[in-house]
From TrEMBL:
Location, primary (coarse class): cytoplasm
Species lineage: Bacteria, Pseudomonadati, Pseudomonadota, Alphaproteobacteria, Sphingomonadales
Function: Catalyzes a salvage reaction resulting in the formation of AMP, that is energically less costly than de novo synthesis.
Similarity comment text for this entry: Belongs to the purine/pyrimidine phosphoribosyltransferase family.
Name recorded for this polypeptide: Adenine phosphoribosyltransferase
Subcellular location: Cytoplasm
Length: 178
């Protein structure tokens, strides 16, 4: 399947979570066996080309794609978690959301000093969560120079923000607008 085929499998829900937003729901792609496998294969090819030694996925849908890609390539998977989910001492970072703040955590022992890590998530919007994850992985010793997303919403500027932090950004699919 091509990226154009995959794009047809992503459901668009108007006015969610608020009026004027077109929500790109990737669960319909994940529920399509052939489409999900194709998305993972295409993303895995990009991760392999980056020279990564590990894949970090952002909770929750970044876990789904990241773990599948890591398993396909025989690489380590590093979960970037919401607070209070890891049973070991963690590194944590607070970051701003549109309405408030949130926190991400990682087990620094899972990252490893100098290990080449690719950051994975399902969707890139403003880039705030990805930037926080990037900083957290770097603080844990990882060398992160690539981020990969299933979907990019380019009008929201996330790719430019990540590129400004020295990250090469790729996405399989993009949707202009919000």
């Amino acid at each position: 399947m091509t990226p154009e085929d995959l794009k047809l499998l992503v459901r668009t829900i108007p006015d969610f979570p608020k009026p004027g937003i077109l929500f790109r729901d990737v669960t319909t792609l994940m529920g399509h066996g052939e489409g999900f496998a194709a998305a993972v294969a295409l993303m895995a090819d990009k991760v392999a080309a980056s020279g990564a030694e590990a894949v970090a996925g952002i909770e929750a849908r970044g876990f789904i794609f990241g773990a599948a890609i890591a398993a396909r390539l025989g690489l380590a998977f590093i979960p970037v978690r919401k607070p209070g989910k890891l049973p070991v001492p963690v590194l944590a970072i607070d970051y701003a959301l549109e309405y408030g703040t949130d926190t991400l955590e990682v087990d620094p022992g899972a990252v490893g000093e100098g290990r080449r890590v690719v950051l994975i998530d399902d969707l890139l919007a403003t880039g705030g969560t990805a930037l926080a994850a990037l900083e957290l992985l770097r603080r844990a010793g990882g060398t992160v120079s690539h981020a990969l997303f299933l979907v990019d919403l380019p009008d929201l500027g996330g790719a430019e923000r990540l590129q400004g932090a020295g990250i090469a950004v790729e996405a399989l699919l993009d949707y202009p607008g919000h």
